[in-house]
Design a protein that fits this description.
Length: about 400
């Protein structure tokens, strides 16, 4: 019998408890051992909850209870979670979490701690919501040399972009709806500015390439500068604007992780992923490419991954040796994004075409409905980003938009 404690009763925590009791028999069959939730930690009171007798405000009660062998951390952030998770692992209790910030910032340390104490630190729910991606990456794809990963990793921004395009919804209204549906972070800036996607690509990069990739080392841009005009040009070009998190191995043996909005062409499956859905492409030398798709945020989709990790933790008798990576002390293995070769979409005002040709050579011009006479939009030839920057500066005009084109790996 494994007793479980759930730390946090917000969207994901309440979903975890709900799903556990809804499918308890099936989950116990999968775990191969009896399971029950003994505690739910939250500072709030839930007197009318059917689980009222399980609530506690006292973390010490949980960490000092030898019956509790599995802890689900779904509080989020680092403030309380980091200390709680460390304390549980030090007591040999396995921890499962949906907390991407915790894994992206402290993953190497917590994985080491789990290994030292013969338990597990599992985080399938931290990336891609309901999508199985962590376990496939280190188990099903273990035979591959992974060369790149690219995906839509944030449900909130994909939901906002979709609502803006398909329903002409204003940015603020789409964000408010995403918050109401429980998709957005407590501070939605983390979604909008790409920090959430950045944490997720750090987790995938660390797992795929074996060294901890810290978010501070990753070039990260969100969607706040993307306009409806940019989206219209993307459509006329034959694609869509998506917030893409990616990592790839570079020719010099480094890796290049990055988060940015991108023009994604229609023959790339990522361009068709809408609403809160996430999609992740993994490129490997044996599989060529595989794609993972599903709901990237939300109560029960995220709880699905948490509860599956609980069942896994219950049946694991030793620490997983494949779901781990080393810590890293500096960023010497991270490539400079300015050396990456890219084509870029540019929208300028009041710049004559001759000036654009003089700087960039032959470019592909785009058009849109309602395009003002003094506006030009084009796709540059592929070149190193630092060379592109120099040329763009040389045309000396008002730049209204610039978005990289996502290359197929
Ligand atoms: N805010 C996150 C998202 C939640 O929208 O993807 C799931 O990690």
């Amino acid at each position: 019998m494994s007793k479980i404690a759930v730390l946090g009763y917000g969207v994901v925590g309440s979903g975890t408890v709900e799903l556990f009791y809804k499918n308890k028999d099936k989950i116990i069959r999968s775990a191969g051992t009896d399971l029950d939730i003994k505690y739910i930690l939250d500072i709030r009171d839930f007197p009318d909850s059917p689980y009222a007798n399980k609530f506690t405000k006292d973390f010490d009660q949980i960490v000092n209870d030898p019956e509790v062998t599995i802890v689900a951390e779904v509080i989020g952030g680092l403030k309380f979670s980091y200390g709680y998770v460390k304390a549980c692992l030090e007591k040999g209790k396995s921890v499962v979490t949906s907390n991407k910030e915790l894994v992206a910032e402290k993953g190497a340390e917590l994985l080491k701690l789990a290994s030292e104490h013969g338990c597990n630190f599992l985080f399938e729910a931290s990336t891609g919501g309901a999508i199985p991606i962590i376990r496939p990456l280190h188990q099903c794809l273990a035979a591959n040399d992974i060369t790149a990963i690219a995906g839509i990793l944030n449900g909130t921004t994909n939901f906002i972009i979709t609502k803006m395009i398909n329903e002409n919804m204003a940015f603020g209204d789409a964000l408010a709806l995403a918050q109401k549906l429980g998709y957005a972070e407590q501070d939605p800036t983390a979604d909008i500015e790409g920090h959430d996607a950045c944490r997720k690509i750090c987790i995938l990069a660390s797992l795929a390439f074996g060294k901890h990739v810290y978010p501070k080392w990753v070039h990260c841009e969100g969607i706040s500068a993307v306009t409806l005009e940019d989206v219209m040009y993307a459509e006329s070009w034959g694609g869509a604007v998506k917030l893409i998190g990616s990592v790839k191995r570079t020719d010099d043996g480094k890796i290049l992780p990055m988060v940015r909005p991108a023009f994604v062409c229609d023959n790339n499956q990522l361009s068709h992923i809408s609403d809160v859905f996430n999609g992740i492409m993994v490129y490997g030398d044996a599989v060529d490419e595989v794609m993972f798709y599903g709901r990237g945020a939300g109560k029960l989709p995220t709880a699905s991954a948490i509860v599956a990790d609980i069942a896994d933790a219950a049946k694991m008798t030793v620490t997983s040796i494949s779901q781990t990576w080393e810590d890293s002390s500096d960023d010497s293995f991270i490539a400079d994004y300015r050396d990456d070769v890219v084509s870029v979409y540019v929208r300028v005002k009041g710049v004559p075409a001759e000036k654009i040709s003089a700087a960039f050579g032959t470019v592909e011009y785009l058009s849109r409905e309602g395009q003002p006479a003094d506006e030009l939009a084009f796709i540059s030839p592929a070149m190193k980003e630092r060379d592109f920057d120099a040329k763009l500066e040389a045309i000396d005009g008002e730049v209204l938009g610039r978005i990289r084109v996502l290359e197929l790996e």
